[in-house]
Design brief:
Elements: H1 9-12, H2 15-18, H3 31-34, H4 39-45, E1 52-55, H5 62-73, E2 77-81, H6 87-100, E3 103-108, H7 115-119, H8 122-127, E4 130-136, H9 140-143, H10 146-149, E5 153-156, H11 162-176, H12 182-192, H13 196-208, H14 216-223, H15 235-249, H16 253-265, H17 270-285, H18 291-306, H19 310-324, H20 330-344, H21 360-364, H22 407-428
Parallel strand pairs: 1-4, 1-5, 2-3, 3-4
Length: 432
């Protein structure tokens, strides 16, 4: 290649590619996998490369690590992109592997292959023709077929910490010959959020426009308002959503607000967050504080009227209220229990006295006979009346209120009503 108007051909190669490690010793981070005595290090040292899934967020070196592992094993390296490839690419890989007797087949973004495409690897992994290496940003438990997953070891790669990113930053600056202030350096490392490629790309782009040492003002102008790392449908999104739900359940308003803000900052749809808040009000607060459900619904309505950013304040208010509200999952547990009980029980007929009888014929068949209208009874309660089907025990319980919030009063009332039922039924029981 020759130089062009924009500098040397080498300088046009992305910085992340120019800094790509050529040996395992040059890899930054992942010490739990590559440190002395760790699984992948031992596999390389013993020449025992095995089929594996490399699972981790973007920019942590999955592709680089796969190439280095195969390089150390001396096996032929065949790469397939699940974004662009298909069954034809798998067939081509089979033919190439047969020419060599054995090969390492690397599938980037393996979660993008469908079940049939993933199944196409199985006979060749089982026969030993392929050493399969898949890379994915999504949870293999959900995105990789169980048959393929059972034949591969899952290795989890972690986001790079600030010290690792700082090492890469220094290498990049040395290669580019640029200077940064310490504040700008720290800000870029924080912006990278564990993603080495993201940091190096930004370092490269910002350095090209710098007239002197890069400071935080120049960095802010160059980067603009860019979103955080997780995508709105991936594992990181659902992990953050899980953290919000658990923080609300754990009655920690500060942590709840933190995860709520993180989700918004990462691009989550506020309407989706509103729906989840309504779910939390029903599942984790329930009748301990029925106002929580109404407040969550009100917050969702306010957001629909105001949109962002004004409507987000109403959602934040709901987050705080749900976090500090009394907690009870008694109604949630009762609902799951009764669904399970009904699913396995017989289809019991409705007792005659509970049936509606709008016609004379139905009345003649005894429907509605003996029904006691609760409002005509003392205290509006028909003591001793049965509402469950025949054959279901009187002491069947699905809902058991907690001793928190409004459910304390609910529990007291239910205790009184149950005692009145028992007394009325004892009075009707013939004595010997």
């Amino acid at each position: 290649m020759t130089d062009d108007l924009f500098g040397s051909a080498t300088a046009q190669v992305p910085l992340a590619e120019r800094l790509r490690p050529t040996t395992l010793d040059e890899v930054v981070g992942q010490s739990k996998l590559l440190g002395p005595g760790q699984p992948l290090r031992l596999a390389v040292e013993r020449g025992q490369l095995h089929s594996m899934i490399l699972w981790g967020p973007p920019g942590v070196g999955k592709t680089t690590l796969a190439r280095l592992l195969v390089q150390a094993s001396a096996l032929p390296f065949i790469a397939i992109s699940a974004v662009l490839g298909g069954v034809k690419d798998i067939r081509d890989a089979v033919e190439q592997a047969k020419l060599h007797g054995r090969a390492a087949v690397f599938v980037d973004e393996v979660h993008r292959f469908n079940k049939a495409q993933q199944d196409a690897f199985l006979p060749h992994v089982e026969s030993g023709l392929f050493v399969f290496i898949g890379a994915t940003t999504e949870n293999p438990s959900f995105e990789v077929n169980s048959a393929l997953l059972s034949r591969a070891t899952v290795h989890v790669l972690e986001p790079l910490g600030p010290p690792d990113l700082a090492r890469l930053f220094d290498r990049g600056c040395a290669l580019l010959g640029t200077r940064w202030t310490e504040d700008a350096r720290d800000a870029l490392i924080a912006y990278a959020d564990g993603d080495a490629r993201r940091m190096l790309n930004a370092l490269d782009n910002v350095s090209r426009t710098a007239q002197g040492p890069v400071d935080t003002d120049h960095l802010q102008q160059a980067l603009g308002a860019q979103l955080r790392r997780f995508d709105k449908g991936g594992d990181q999104f659902y992990d953050a959503m899980s953290a919000l739900h658990k923080s609300v359940r754990g009655s920690d308003p500060d942590a709840s607000l933190y995860w709520f803000a993180r989700l918004l900052d990462g691009g989550a749809d506020p309407r989706y967050l509103a729906r989840r808040l309504v779910r939390m009000a029903s599942e984790d607060i329930g009748l301990a504080d029925p106002r929580a459900l109404r407040l969550a619904l009100d917050a969702a309505e306010v957001y629909e009227r105001l949109g962002s950013p004004e409507g987000e304040l109403a959602l934040a208010q709901a987050v705080v209220y749900l976090a500090v509200a009394a907690k009870s999952n008694a109604a949630y547990v009762a609902y799951k229990a009764v669904r399970a009980w009904v699913a396995k029980d017989a289809s019991r007929p409705v007792p005659l006295h509970l049936r509606n009888a709008p016609t004379q014929l139905m009345k003649g068949l005894g429907m509605g006979d003996g029904y006691r209208y609760a409002h005509d009874e003392p205290d509006g309660f028909a003591a001793g009346e049965r509402y469950l089907p025949d054959g279901v025990p009187d002491d069947l319980r699905f809902y058991e209120p907690t001793d928190r919030g409004l459910e304390v009063k609910i529990a007291d009332k239910l205790a009184r009503l149950r005692e009145a039922n028992q007394a009325a039924r004892r009075a009707l029981t013939p004595k010997d």
